[in-house]
Amino acid sequence: MGSGNRQPFDNPVIEWVDSRLPVFTLMNKEYGVFPTPKNFNYFWNFGAIAMVMLILMLVTGITLAMHYAAHTDVAFSSVERIMRDVNFGWLIRYMHMNGASFFFIAVYIHIFRGLYYGSYKQPRELLWMLGVLILLLMMATAFMGYVLPWGQMSFWGATVITNLFSALPVVGPGIVEWLWGGFAVDNPTLNRFFSLHYLLPFVIFAVVFLHVWALHVTGSNNPSGIEPNGPQDTIPFHPYYTMKDTAGLLLFLLIYCIFTFFMPNALGHPDNYIEANPLVTPAHIVPEWYFLPYYAILRAVTFDTNLFLLIGLVCAAYLVAVNLWFTKKPENCPVATTFKIPVLQDIPMKALEPLMAAGAVLFLGIGGMIAFMPDMGMAKMMDAAAPVLVEAKLGGVLAMFGSIAMLFVLPFIDRHPYRSAVFRPWFKVAVLLLTIDFFVLTYVGGKPAEGLYVLVAQAATAYYFAFFLVIIPFLNKFEPRVPLPPSIHQYVLDKKAKKKQKSDDYMNALKPEAAE
Amino acid sequence: MSMDEDTKDGGSRRDFLYLTAAAFGAVGTGSVAWPFIHQMNPAADTKALSTIEVDLAPIEQGQAITVMWQGKPVFIRHRTAKEIEEARTVDVSSLRDSQTDEERVEKPEWLIMVGVCTHLGCIPLGQKTGDVKGDYDGWFCPCHGSHYDSSGRIRKGPAPKNLPVPPYAFVSDTKIKIG
Amino acid sequence: MKLFSAFCLGLALMVPVSAMAAGDAETPPKQQWHFSGPLGTYDRAALQRGFQVYRQVCSACHSMKLLSYRNLEDLGYSEAQVKAIAGEYTVTDGPNDEGEMFDRPALPSDRFVSPYPNDAAAKYANNGALPPDMSLLAKARKNGPDYIYAVLTGYEEPHGDTHLLPGQHYNKYMAGHVIAMAPPLSDGLVAYEDGSSTTVDQYSRDVSEFLMWAAEPKMEARKQTGVKAILFLLAFFGIMYAVKKKLWAGLH
Lengths: 516, 179, 252
Prior knowledge:
The complex is a heterotrimer of chains A (about 525), B (about 180) and C (about 250). With about 525 residues, chain A is mostly helical. Helices cover about 65% and strands about 0% of the residues of chain A. Chain A folds into three domains: about 40-225 and about 235-270, Cytochrome Bc1 Complex, Chain C; about 300-475, no CATH class; about 485-515. Chain A has a two-stranded antiparallel ribbon. In chain A, strands 3-4 form a two-stranded antiparallel sheet. In chain A, about 40% of the residues are buried. Chain B has about 180 residues and is of the alpha+beta class. Chain B starts with 9 loop residues before the first helix and ends with a strand. Chain B has two domains: about 5-40; about 45-180, Rieske Iron-sulfur Protein, CATH 2.102.10.10. Chain C has eight helices and four strands, in the order αααββαααββαα. In chain C, helix 2 (about 45-55) crosses helix 7 and helix 6 (about 145-150) runs antiparallel to helix 7 (about 200-215). The chains are: A mainly alpha (about 525), B alpha+beta (about 180), C mainly alpha (about 250). Chains in contact: A-B, A-C, B-C. The interface between A and C is large, with 57 and 52 residues.
């Protein structure tokens, strides 16, 4: 941020400030003349929209905190006082409530954009990882915020989610008591959640700053996934994208306002209008809709992972690793070679594969039978031989955190040289399926965990992980490489020509009919 | 900041569009700001407590009580004939904040005022029988030595104004409504 | 653009579906309310009648702790009327100068007086079932006012194999069809002054509307502000879209 080659400003006041602290030069460099690919579509609005939602959440949150009282005796009625007595309190609270949902909507679309157009790839890995960190922080903040009104869902949501940590072996129960500051979710819990709910948004803000900084180092990706390589590919950020972002933002706010003003409780749960009661659990505990996919993954693990199942999984992982993860198939076992295990070092990979395949089928079969159909005679017999290694509860927690971890490591899994799904026909299908998968998980996450819903959740969870661990490595190796256009400029021209061709064809097809 | 694509009348139409957009932006920001400012004003439940009724019947002549109104102490004094006399014989033009005693009371025997020193907000002494009443048989502020007379007017010391009289009305002979 | 619209459509479809996740009892039929729709307002006469039903019937067991008598001015009562209504109730205040608690008539700034001193007393008096506080009832149940109306009019003779214990009643719209509250309303129970029909159906409609107001007293201001906000944003969006088009038209 040096001021080496500063251009003087005409306005003397701005010039006076800028020559001492070049904030105006900085703003102009980063948001004024900043060269930006000229072919963004409306998906590229959602970064700016998310930023506005963050600010909106900060402003409404700070004002709500002026009236809210974080004590179990009065928290619920203090929120109702905001709704009834504080000037415009109802408006600010409904803005905050629905703002959380719309912040998540904006961020989810933003993430989808990054996935579809390969924005996570080299050199934007860190930019992407900072983004995933923001998502994690948002989840923590939203979770604690939902506890504050101290309704039934607040209380039981907090109880269920904090209890997840009790799944950790040995330290689990200690961690849970530490989180609670007691032996159940109670006043100390509410107090610390309020404190952290106020703190974390500022941490988010700081990480967003880093996220934007990283963005301005590499520059933006674009729908073609091709790096701009000259002034014909870019336009200045202002006024082109400032105006486009504002237009998109207003449309987004319009939908947000429809919810805030005309159906403010549609995204919430009625039970949260009942004050928390530690003696009565609501019939269905459902988290806020934006947590439902992870909740579905958590609940999809209904089975204990036993020794056989784990051995089977390791065998299967071996096959996937050797055939897909390594771009060049190693001659000998990579583990044995790395650790210099003399006997195994000489065993060629090829020879092991049939063995591993047989192991995978056998152990997954038996292990699966014990895990999924414990009542069958055979399973009962084998049960004793296969101790449970990971209980269902811990398995679910691992799967849930694993689903976020997948996003973290994605830039290092996907090694295909092309970014955008536009030029990756196979990846396009896979990533759109992942999007549908995400919707399916959201849907089943809101349904009771029984019958068909469990099976659907398990299938959807399997696809989610397979996308990252199997499909992407497979595409790295086998997806065909169609020729890329030489530049963004050419890409835009091609697209225009194609569009024109299409409409001409359409007009031509119409013509004879019109003549009749 | 550079827009070089310009046509003859396209330019003025574009300027008009930009101006309208800027105006909408300003109006929008302004109307969003108002709720966030107004939320800090007293809320409906706070305002509902902004009037109180006080029964004067139990207060003997020469006695005073203090009641809370809008978070501030209100002094209610049942004045003696001597106190009324003292308050009414003062040369009003000699006072720092000239006000007649008649302007400050509804009924001469009942003096009702906000007991917050007009200097820096302390509570003057003089309500209880044993209190220092200052040089003018009224109230004395211990913080910086302001003396108020038996009508609550500033007579000596740094305070600039008389003790303020809150809006009140007699709803019956022995009952008042403050606020 | 096609991708974008498909994505948004998917999201739009998913959100309400996932939000309506829970619930199992018979869905209450949808009613047409005066406050329904984006421009709906409360019917003041119905609110006053509903309040009358609450006061004469429901308030024997159900508290409304979040409301104050002053809120009744929203129903169209004058300040003096509200004062008179409040004055009919007694609240315990204090301590006074002698350190004693004392009773006094309620003021408009007081909260609604509860029928029982605490939840334990309320449970004890009602065979162990706690009559829920009604301040937020219309928001604390799925399909709030429709549900309240349905339950009040949904008492029937026990069907099929529903086994009722003493003190339990059959109701179509309760989860498990069992409700501890005896049918609270009967035709002619409350005498209306405005000539409205004095039937269970009318009482139920009025009290449901009243409870909706109690749960969401700022609904009218909310909708009116909403209409202005939406119109403003539509116009602003139109202008910004034109600005964007105009600006980008110069690009090649």
